[in-house]
Design a protein that fits this description.
By secondary structure, this protein is mostly helical. Helix content is about 60%, strand content about 0%. The chain has one domain (about 5-60): lambda repressor-like DNA-binding domains (434 Repressor (Amino-terminal Domain), Orthogonal Bundle), CATH 1.10.260.40. The longest helix is centred in the C-terminal third of the chain and has 11 residues, at about 45-55.
């Protein structure tokens, strides 16, 4: 499953993959795999992203 929404959110906030990866405590390459849909995003990372972007979790 590709997570286009997390890419759109990141780009809408003028952030780079490395910025969000740092927030999550992972490498840029690992975060890239989330956006491509090659890795499943852990719920804790989804919660962190929802808080960071100040959006409801279900909108990610």
């Amino acid at each position: 499953m590709k997570f286009k929404r997390i890419k759109d959110l990141r780009e809408d906030h003028d952030k780079y993959q490395k910025d969000i990866a740092k927030l999550l405590g992972i490498s840029q390459q690992y975060y890239s795999e989330y956006e491509k849909g090659n890795r499943t995003i852990p719920i804790q990372h989804l919660i962190t992203l929802a808080k960071y972007y100040t959006i409801p979790l279900l909108t990610i």
